[in-house]
Structure formats: C-alpha cells, structure tokens
Amino acid sequence: MHFLYRDFVSQAQIDAQYNPSLALAPTADPMLHYAAQAQQARTQLPCVLDVPYGPTVAETLDIFPAAQPNAPVFLFIHGGYWRALSSKDFSGVALGLQPLGITTVVINYALCPQVTIDEITRQARAAVAWTLRNMGQYGGDPTRMAIGGHSAGAHLAAMCLQTPWAEDYGLPHDPLKAAVLVSGLYDLEPLRYSYLQPQIQLDEGSIRRNSPAFAVRPCPTPVWVTWGAAESGEFARQSKVFHTAWRAQGNVAKLSPQAKANHFTAIHGFEAPDSALCQWLAHALHAQTCD
Fold first, then answer.
1. What is the pLDDT of residues 37-50, one digit of tens each?
2. What is the pTM assigned to this prediction?
C-alpha cells in the first residue's frame, strides 16, 4: 500500500483532516461572523488603515491604537491557507485587546498562487520589522510586542519566530515578548497531497524551508500553542509537534486546546477582553487585565 503522508493513502483522507469547512453544517458561514466583527471594530475603534510596510500593493497593515500612549503591541497574521482573505476580514481581533490597553496591528499580504509561500513568509517578516521600527509613531511600545496568528497565519507567526532578526534586519536578536499560535500548520508536507496544492504549489524545497516545526531555534519568547478542541486530529497533532520541537530547544511554551471551539471559532476570544486569549496576552505584555 502506498502512503501519501503518515498513514494517509488518499487525498480524500488528507482533505478530511485539513479542510475544516467540511466539518461545518451546510448553512454555516463563519465568515459572516468575522465580517460583522471586523466592521464593528473599524466603526467603533480608532484605526489607521492601509499603512504600507513594503513595496508591493498587498503589503499593508491596519493599526488599532490603544487609548493610552506607550502601549504594548500585538501583531496578528490572518489565515486563509495562504490563498484567501485579507487583513480587513480580521479587524475584529482588536475588539478584545483595545480595552486592555493593547494596540493591535493586523497585517495584509499577497496570496498564492500569485506569489509563493516563501514570499508570503518574507512579507510577514517585513511587516514585523516595520512594526518594531515604527510603532512609536502610533503610540506603541516596540519593546513590548507580541505576535500571533490563526491557521496559515499561525504558520507565518511561527516562521517569524525563526527569523535571525539581528543578522537580517539589524534588530534585537529576540525582539518579540510573546506569541500565540492558534490552529496552526507547522509541517506543510501533507498539504502537498491536499485540495490546496494547485494553488499553494508546494515542492520538497518549499516544504523544507517553510515547515517551522523542523527549524526551531533557541528563543526566549514564550509561546501559547492552542487550537479548537473540536478540530480534526491532524490540527491537534500539528500543534503538539510544534510544541514538542519548541520545548526541545529549551524554549517556554504552553499547549492547550480551547474547549468546544472549532477551527473558525478558536480566535473568537480575541473579540472579548475577559477571554483566555486576551488575558494571556495582557499578562505576557504586562498590560491591563480583567483579574
């Protein structure tokens, strides 16, 4: 018997694990919730939209400043399997953090197949570098900056944690104070055999370069690796693989699922100040808390 990946013998088996939409009810549309929350954030919160961080049209970010100056910063990277959605779909993540005195930055990036995952990783790192250098102009404290992401965005955030910031960007070696990775992909190999392959076009080299579970370096940034308890076994396994690799380098990490959450609701906590996601970030960044 020929195995495509681990014990999977067909694309259908892999898709069943890695296409979270298959588990939704036929009438469910998680994007309706995201869109409503995003619109609420852009309507109710102060914001500076479409700030360029790089030379291409897609390289922009949206800033939701905290009310007080010198605020800690959280940079969020959206999901969509590197080939869908934009920063505007996820403005809602600022709703729970702004009341805690945290400035939120939601980044945009170009999408596959117009660009490769290598290029998207470069753009994510460029966005982090820009934010570290420029947040003082927007009332943020770049010495208290966390990063996070959802699904493909968690992958990109994990790739940012691997970055040689001092060598490549002239920044402090480990400039990020915390990271929260939600429902991420850390070993890209199975996706080569999935419904995504025509758009993301993985090969052995891109898988090797862009699978953060296999390139972890010693890093003092504490990480919370989390996912929805109702997600597939492979999403849980991916998180555990990255957590194990992170800890193996002597790094600090928390690993836990979110009860009753699925792949799409696992980031709803960013919309509520008293949620576990917002409170963990507030503690990590020494911001306000709801304790």
1. 999 999 999 999 99
2. 0.97
